[in-house]
Amino acid sequence: MARPLSEEARQKALDAALEIIGELGIDGFTVDAVAKRSGVAKTTIYRHFASGNELMIAAVDCMVQPFATPNTGSLASDLEAFMEIVIPIMDDHSMQRTMMSVLSAAASDPELARVHHELMQERMLPIRTMVELAQGRGEVLPELDLDLVMDFIEGPFFFRKMIRQQALTGDDIRSMVDLIVKALTLP
Question: In this prediction, what percent of the chain has a pLDDT beyond 70?
Fold first, then answer.
């Protein structure tokens, strides 16, 4: 009779995989490195994960924690509150490396692309909800394409932080939110 799989060993492998991806990106990820860092034998890792790619994808999948959806009664206040939560996470250099590494690897790995898409759907859900609430309050046009609106809202913040590598102050966030809300509100 086979021994049951150790949840502790699985978690140690996932934790080590997350650390390695955060430090070295997807390109630096190997099962050997995970085994060495975690102290879990490679054979045990392969009992939990069919391949190194499956382990890497499981680790990436663990990265995104759901964000709370602010509901202050105004789209501008909701977006400001949301970005005040998200921006510090984007400031973490390990998270920046991981995000860019996953984005790059997803371009050539269909399974990682699928996981990336699911993570983004989860990550963008609060923005969708905030816009739907604003639509319900009559703040924004009801016929907006929500997928396009989510990109429109997220894009400036991502571009500023990840592409231009510039800080976002509270004043910057308020100014960007003001521009976004003006573009989405009823005339």
Answer: 96
Decide which of 3.30.70.3040, 3.30.40.10, 3.40.120.10, 1.10.10.60 is the CATH code for 7-62. Answer: 1.10.10.60
- Reading the block at residue 7, the tokens are 């949840």
Q: What residues does each domain of the chain span?
A: 7-62, 64-184
Q: Which CATH architecture has domain 64-184?
A: Orthogonal Bundle (1.10)
Dihedral sign, Cα of residue 155, residue 176, residue 148, residue 66? positive
First to last CA, the chain: 70
Residues 29-55 have pLDDT tens digits of 899 999 999 999 999 999 999 888 889
119 vs 168 pLDDT, higher one: 168
- In this prediction the pTM is 0.79
Tokens of 45: 């890792």
Give φ, ψ of 158 to 5 degrees: -60, -45
